[in-house]
Amino acid sequence: TEPLLKVEGLKKYFPIRTGMLGKHTGNVKAVDDISFFVNEGETLGIVGESGCGKSTTGRMLMRLLEPTEGKVTFNGKELTSISNDEMRKARREIQMVFQDPYASLNPRHTIEKILMEPLIVHNIGDPKSRKKKVHDFLEIVGLSSYHAKRYPHQFSGGQRQRIGIARALMTNPKLIIADEPVSALDVSIQAQVLNLMQDLQKELKLTYIFIAHDLGVVRHISDRVGVMYLGRMVELATSESMYAEPLHPYTKALLSAVPVPDPEFKREQIILEGDIPSPSNPPSGCTFHTRCPFKMDICVKDVPQLQEAKTGHFVACHLYNEQLQH
Ligand code: SF4
Ligand code: MG
Fold first, then answer.
1. Ligand at shortest distance from the CA of 232
2. 130 and 29 fall within a common domain
3. Residue 98 within a domain
4. Which of 248, 251, 299 to mutate to test the pocket of ligand 1 (most atoms within 8 A of CB)?
5. What SMART domains does this protein's entry cite (predicted)?
6. Same domain for 62 and 85?
């Protein structure tokens, strides 16, 4: 069967303009040729440091940001070739949950009004059924219809994220793109919201793309995980394979910072040196070479391609070239 979402060769280049005449002198390659798919009912985690292009990717999937190049196919429909009008309709089935629900909830509107808005925009139901749906979904996300007349500032951070999730669910979407949905919350609250998202996924048969900067956060919720660095996907594998045997030095470094529950399990520790280079002037070859303890001559010259190193486990790193040829 076809995956629910298929992304092929997706790119987002922002032009750099300099001087009085705004001469085009180069590009910031925010997302540079990434491809992946998401199966129905699955959760794909996308992880990387800020500025790696993960949010830009999420926004391009919904065409909140137009891709420079590439193809996005959702549920058999090529989103990158439809009109803006058709895209607006398609957004009924793809919704986003944001990092900061406070910033995305209108402070002057009641929760009822906020949750009703997507139903009005997509012309779903009548005033009475809309109201019922709002109240039902408040219950579903662990709040109560009693909260409907309150304003966003009257809720805690965790409750606001529940409201953000309820809003995303109002149109009965198939796919939810959650961009760091728990990053702004206390650790104790994070677990509650993650559990809620997992319960909702089962109940409502949702498919998730879960964006995070921390591999620890996505571990339990993701079936597969993609790691991004400077606009490229550098590793993509099942959660199990990624955490048991990370291949890319960058993934290993990210995992070095994640505590392991089993004290007997010793992970190879890689401490990252230096900062992420500027995406407007990325290093040649493997863009990770300025920080990689395993750098070889070829790494400075050739861009490593994402290739299958083990069944279902893809990596973009020259360390695995030998292995790939045999
Ligand atoms: Fe390190 Fe080279 Fe692999 Fe890049 S390609 S991660 S520089 S070993
Ligand atoms: Mg972001």
1. 1
2. no
3. no
4. 299
5. AAA (SM00382)
6. yes
